[in-house]
Design a protein that fits this description.
Length: 285
């Protein structure tokens, strides 16, 4: 099929048509029938040549089939094919993004989850991508879904929640192993959302709350233990230091504040208590 598909083909066709009109002008004056045949032949040649000029963008590769058989890969840039004999299949070689639809998976510990992700890949071998697989985008999408279910089904629920990065790499390795033969290169697979049943979410919330309460209780107990040890050290220090109890008593009184509502009454002076303590110690000796 002869088609003009780009502006360069159009320009060449117009140039050839113009030259043909100039060359056949004198012939058409002397012999209109012969001139019309020659002009029509020139138009056909111009259309044939111009329709064989193709342009591929920088990210495109053209797989050429000649009479149904693979011939070559053209592009990027401008190139020429034989119209009505050569057939083109344009292939995008940029990194392509494809969603992995949400998949229902039963984990190794029998927990139902729904998982979706995203697949990044590119065509590294246009010839294999066109010849070896009917629709490489659909094929790699289906294979990625199957690989996701296989990998997730062999893991526990806790592993799925904690090892997202590792899960993506495992799925990527499985897909890469097969897609390499299709002329495709997997650049990455990322897990996006993990949905779990509502009752399981409530159980996870209660578990997290209990874990936080456990840590708070342990922290409080450790604080009480440290406080008791510090108080014991303070008591031993005050016991072996003369006058330490008096200073502590005066500090406590000072902390009560100078307000009139706070009244401190010492029934027995501290000096008398200390004197009685010394007498009792001497009596024991």
């Amino acid at each position: 099929m002869i088609l003009i598909t780009n502006y360069i083909s159009m320009i060449i066709f117009l140039v050839i048509s113009g030259l043909g009109f100039l060359l056949t002008g004198p012939v058409m004056l002397s012999n209109p029938f012969l001139g019309s045949i020659i002009f029509g032949l020139i138009i056909f040649i111009g259309l044939f040549i111009s329709s064989g000029i193709k342009i591929a963008a920088q990210w495109e590769k053209a797989v050429v089939f000649r009479l149904g058989k693979y011939s070559s890969i053209k592009g990027p840039g401008i190139f020429f094919i034989i119209p009505m004999i050569d057939e083109l299949r344009m292939v995008d070689t940029r990194i392509l993004t494809m969603d992995i639809p949400k998949q229902q998976v039963i984990t190794k510990d029998n927990v139902p989850v729904s998982i979706n992700g995203v697949l990044y890949f590119l065509v590294s071998n246009p010839e294999a991508a066109v010849i070896r697989v009917q629709n490489y985008s659909y094929a790699i999408s289906q294979y990625a879904q199957a690989a996701l279910r296989d990998v997730m089904g062999g893991m526990t629920f806790d592993e799925i929640l904690a090892e997202r990065e590792q899960i993506g790499k495992s799925i990527e390795q499985n897909v890469e192993k097969e897609s390499r033969e299709w002329g495709l290169q997997v650049k990455g697979i990322k897990i996006q959302d993990i949905d779990v049943p509502e009752d399981l979410k409530k159980m996870m919330s209660r578990q997290a709350s209990a874990e936080r309460e456990k840590r708070a209780t342990i922290t409080k107990a450790e604080g009480d233990k440290m406080a008791a040890l510090n108080l014991a050290d303070a008591a031993r220090t005050m016991h072996i230091s003369p006058g330490a109890m008096q200073l502590r008593t005066l500090q406590t009184i000072d902390g009560l504040g100078p307000t009139a509502s706070n009244t401190v009454v010492l029934a027995v002076p501290i000096e008398i208590m200390e004197l009685m303590k010394k007498f009792s110690e001497n009596g024991k000796n």
